Amino acid sequence: MTSYADAAEFEAHVRACTVSIPKPCPFDADERNIYIAPQGSFDLVRKDLNLVFAENPEYVRAIEEVCIAEGVHDAFSLRRELVNLKKVYQYFMEQSKALERSFKQLATFFFNDILEDKLLSAGFHHSERYSNICESLQIITGLVISTLDMRGYAKAICCVPRHCASERPQMLAKSPMNMRTYKCIASAEKYILEHELKDEDGRSLSDGNDAVPEEGFLTVERQAQLVESLAEQIAKAQPSWPPHVIGYLKQLMITRGVAKALWIRTEAEAFLHNMDRVLCRAKRARHILSRQQTKLSTSSVWVDTVSSLATAEERNDTIIVEKVGAKHCAVLSGIIPVLEDFVKFLPQMLLSPNRRWFVASDRKSETTVTIYTPKGFGVGTIFERVLPILNMHQMEMFDLMEAEGWPLESERFLKGGKSQCKQCKVKFGSIWINPTLYYCAKCENDARTGRGGVSCEQGTCPFKKTCKLQGAFCDHGNRCFSCDRWSCEECNLVRGGGETVTSLVENFLSEEKCGEGGLILGGIFLDFDRTFASTKSGGSPFPQGLDAGTAVETALQSTDHTLDENLLNLALAYPDLVHVVTRNSNLEHLQIFLAAHGIQPSVSVRSVKLERTSKGVVMKDLLVEAQKKAIANGQAASKVVGVFADDDLREHVHPDVAAIAQDVSESFELKRVMFVRG
After folding, report:
1. Reduced to 3 states, what is the DSSP secondary structure of residue 161?
2. In 528-669, which residue ranges form alpha helices assigned H by DSSP?
3. Which residues make Cβ contacts (< 8 Å) with residue 629, sequence separation at least 6?
4. Exposed site from 140, 152, 291, 619, fewest CB < 10 Å?
5. Which of 195-204, 598-607, 639-648 has the lowest mean pLDDT?
6. Residue 650, domain CATH
7. What pLDDT sits at residue 527?
8. Residues 126-141: tens digit of each pLDDT
9. Taking residues 248-255, what's their average pLDDT?
10. Rounded Cα–Cα distance for residues 405 and 408 (Å)
11. Residues 143, 290: one domain?
């Protein structure tokens, strides 16, 4: 590297070569200005290297080989998966918070639901119904706490500082002891030790290593050490390179986010080790607690034991102690599946970060998160456990409200009420009022189910009259696809972006390849405005006055409109399956715009406005053609599947489209994606 031997000349060379790259230059990057530097992909590193070492491409290859060996590329991929995992935890946290609110309503409504006769003589004791509600509430509380923690710490790991001079975030430095999850486990362990509970072998928590509360947890190397290690490996691979060149490469790795990616990986590994230890303690504590739980419903042993105590105060104290243990056990039952998923899948993500483990769309004010998780992701099992209890007792609650009148004459419902229901005009406590709708629980349920005269015979969306489109309300969940931002697999209508569409397509193609169920993917149908492209309201992607014969390169330079990256990749990968079905009548401009992005002519563009038809009719014709083609090729097509992405709910619930999605002949199936452009 004789041409780069002088440090001053080399720095001047770097600055001159990289003048086109946004500032700061790696030589000038510091703790303050580094946040405006382009970073987050090894492509950016490669771009700098190609400019600096344009006359020596073998140097670029040598540097990248070291980076690959040190796991730099995998570290960037891991960050992407951690971001998606964070979004998945956000989704489950929001779902569990909604469930927590519903269970709190049930717990308040059935608070005086106590057993009578013999059990009353044993002390104050709730019924099995109320106990099941409270147990489910505590399980969901544990789920809320753990998903909130995991989302927060996944985000903290992804957002570690870029520069070496920055301190490690306190949230990570103090973990796991500062986690609410950890504090819940520690509280359960304290209860076990105070009451001298033991496992089946007669061992208490103090008999094992798990009793040490804050030892054995890993910390993480400083970012500077990670960069120094990478620079040392490059220097070993190229011993003839002078120190100032190695110093530049070190600064480049910091500026373009390589150091941050390596720090993220190291933090993830340390956090994984810590969570593995925390999980072991949680499982042991729950095991001891569950073993000690006494059946509190109609157990004669329980009644005789408690009745033998001298005073009512002693009896009630004994019951309270047992209930506290049951509460700890239930909270841990909500925490453990979340920790198990993390400890199970993060090692796989570290080993194979280039695989798409999780897909999650961004949540915005008018959207919801649509997620895909790998097989075996167990958080959903908690919902399967508690939802039947919620549905059964919630129906009982609404039936009692209908029979006995609402609100019931009790301070539990009206005490401190500051929020007035828009329908019945009664003021309730905040737990009974939908914070968005401002209906009380009964009035909201009446509107959704069509009971009580609030709405018509069938359930409708209570949010706004403009939502009452035929088919916009899901009868399976009594939710509106628009206002509740609802997704329903049974209705074949989910919300999501380009990643959601890609996942659906890839799933169908894998099933088709495996020959499962005789499925044939017959078409991928994309709306143009606000879905495939950034145009809207039938506008042209080009400025007014553009000649249809304009060269493709010139046309592309004249517009700021873009295509969704995921949908573009689909169109490039499957040109014979993708069809653009739109109301936009600028047909020639759309074709030029697509061609300018490398899309082949086999991707058809159909304007239903020009053809004077509907999107449903066009899609049905294309699916029929695909079925005939499959039969002609000797394929046994028992069902032809299509995927339809459109940002307008009215298109999805149009009778012609809904008829395909709900095809009674079972010859066709249409998966509808209410598209949310990122």
Report:
1. coil
2. 552-557, 565-573, 587-596, 608-611, 615-632, 649-652, 655-661
3. none
4. 291
5. 195-204
6. 3.40.50
7. 95
8. 577 888 888 899 999 9
9. 89
10. 6
11. yes
Residue labelled with tokens 């119904």:
129
Is a pLDDT exceeding 90 seen at residue 30?
Answer: no
Task: Name, in order, each residue with C-beta under 8 angstroms of 351's C-beta and a sequence gap of 6 or more.
Answer: none
Give a yes or no: residue 248 inside a domain. no
Q: Angle, nearest 10°, between helix axes 223-237 and 258-292?
A: 130
pLDDT band with cut points at 50, 70 and 90 for residue 524: very high
Across the strands, what pairs with 580? Answer: 526, 605
- Per residue in 170-195, pLDDT tens? 888 888 889 999 999 999 998 888 88
Q: Torsions phi, psi of 488, nearest 5?
A: -145, 115
The answer as to whether 513 is a domain residue is yes
Question: Is 363 part of any domain?
Answer: yes
Residue 369 near residue 101 (C-beta atoms within 8 A) = no
Residues 653 and 519 in one domain: yes
Output the six-digit token pair for 675.
């598209």
Position 474 scores a pLDDT of 80
Residue 425 token pair: 């005009």
Q: For residue 405, is it left (φ>0), alpha (ψ between -120 and 50) or beta?
A: left
Percent of the chain with pLDDT over 90: 20
DSSP annotation string for 506-536: HHHHHHHHHTGGGEEEEEEEE-TBTTTBS--
- Cα 272 → chain centroid: 19
The overall average pLDDT reported for the chain is 80
Residue 219 pLDDT: 66
Q: Token digits for 135?
A: 């147990």
Exposure string (b/e) for 46-56, b if CB count within 10 Å is 16 or more?
Answer: ebbbebbbeee
Asked whether the beta carbons of 373 and 386 are under 8 A apart, the reply is: no
Phi, psi dihedrals of residue 521, rounded to the nearest 5°: -80, 110
In sequence order, which ranges of 174-257 are alpha helices (DSSP H)? 180-194, 223-237, 243-255
Question: Given a cut of 60, is residue 311 above it in pLDDT?
Answer: no
Element spanning 479, H or E: strand 479-480
Number of domains, the chain = 2
Of 279, 442, 360, residue with least CA distance to 93: 360
Residue type, 114: I
Mean pLDDT confidence for 392-420? 76
Rounded CA separation 354/430 (Å): 46
Q: Evaluate if residue 618 carries a pLDDT over 90.
A: yes
Torsional sign, CA 470, 476, 482, 488: negative
Q: Tokens 């088709």 correspond to what residue? A: 512
Residue 351, in any domain of the structure: yes
> Among 363, 381, 399, which residue terminates a domain?
381
- pLDDT band of residue 272 (cuts 50, 70, 90) is very high
Question: Would the pLDDT of 291 be above 90?
Answer: no
Q: From 381, 415, 438, give the residue that closes a domain.
A: 381
Residue whose pair of structure tokens reads 């971001």 in the numeric block: 83
Residue 18, C-beta contacts closer than 8 angstroms, at least 6 positions apart: 25, 48, 51, 52
User: Cα Rg for the chain, rounded, in angstroms?
Assistant: 31
Domain of 102, in residue numbers: 75-162+177-216+257-381
